[in-house]
Design goal:
6-stranded antiparallel β-barrel; alpha/beta; 6-stranded parallel beta sheet; 2 domains; elongated
Amino acid sequence: MQIFRHIPNQQQQACALAIGNFDGMHLGHQALLKQLTETAKSLGLTSAVMTFEPHPREFFSPETAPARLSSLREKLEHFAEAGVEVAYVCRFNRRLAGLTPQAFMQNILRDALNAQAILVGEDFRFGAMRAGSILDFLEAKFNLISLSQVDLENARVSSTRVRSALASGDLNEARLLLNRPYSISGKVVHGAKLGRQLGFPTANVLMRHERPALTGVYAVNLDGLNAVANLGIRPTIAGISKLKLEVHVLDFNADLYGKHVHVEFLHKIRDEAKFDGLDALKAQIALDVEAARIFFKK
């Protein structure tokens, strides 16, 4: 998949273009990308996606913006898996935010990207003050495919719904909405080595963005390896303000430092808790590891 981190200066090969934030890549997003690849193939066009970095809500109101379900890298991985040929990552800034719907359609979609077909959700809004809608695409004579919402159990599938499921610890609902286990990926970085001192070495997975408050201890899968993970603020040690993901891989002693790993959350073992000293914490970790082993045996 070809990736552009800006809008090209010269017109590109004609494409079918899906536009959106695609946070989480849930069932609704998957349906849109499936329609995109089918449309592109039927019309002889390149399949392309336009997404935004940062998320527009992070740009306008960083203090109240929702936690991300997926990083930019994760989104790009999902695009590639879906068969998308080109991804345009548009820097969301004041210039882009200030474009009128008409300027966005003419200058970017037509002149730069050569979009011959546009695919969006039925509630898609764009342009300055979110003034543009699917009616503007139709008035501008675009070949428009507007997908209706995807429902699951009589309710709309959305990134907000996925966040709510994760916040309540409902991994099963999140898995249904995503059609896969919820996961976090990141680079393994050096930590304080406390887990190693306690006899349970951990891979510290760097998270570049705020994630849903899915705090607790979980049975997880790290790139095909059975593991147990703690996602939280480490209250027994000193407490930290930002969530930290620490993963202990079962029956494994290879070096993971510097590797980019994917951690799938499969089963919640317990809530995060504060213990009376490191001995109590070590004893609980041993119980957590045993609980994870039992889960995987089942």
